[in-house]
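[09:14] KT: can someone run the structure on this one? pasting the chain below
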Amino acid sequence: MCRALRSKHKPIIGLAGGIGAGKSVVARILTELGVGLVDSDALGLAVMSAPAVTETLRQWWGDSILDAAGTIDRRRVGDIVFNDAAERIRLEQLLYPSIARERAVLVERFQADPVVRAIVFDSPLLFETGLDRQCDTVWFVEAHREVRARRVTAARGWTPEELGRREKLQKPLDLKRAKADYSIVNNSDIDDLRLQVVRLFNLVLERTPRAKS
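[09:31] RB: done, structure tokens below
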């Protein structure tokens, strides 16, 4: 393990991996084991939905980014920022400080909750945003590219080309894999994935002094 688990708090598990690898499924399994979830996508959506932020985005990009209910259409925003690096950076600068504050509140709450056994960061940009430095252990969720392509086609309607284009905006998978402490292979079924997650989670608890008390 590359990171020394700290004894004065519950372990924080960071999830990394390619788009469509199944990080959110791993996170869901962990919540079933009593882990508190910090979902960066959910935090981003909540921040983006704040009236002041919605109005700022409308001023930037017009009413076309709003759906019929007048709320932000994330798919339309995604089309803008994934095709324009400057706009993506501008959006990140607007959202990230608020997301970081909300994340810190959640972590503090989970650390104080005796029912919560650990914390997991489900973030598509764990290494890109430096969140890995807040983690006690990072797990790389692995899946074959063709498996990931099928998943994102079914879930998001992306072509394999779109998957490749978006992955190029992130750090290389080889680098993420090398920086992670453990790998989980998610090419088969949910039962096999759950066995791997349970095994790794138990190992993390064994290495955490607080968890032994």
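[09:33] KT: thanks! The radius of gyration is 18 Å.
[09:34] RB: yep, looked fine to me
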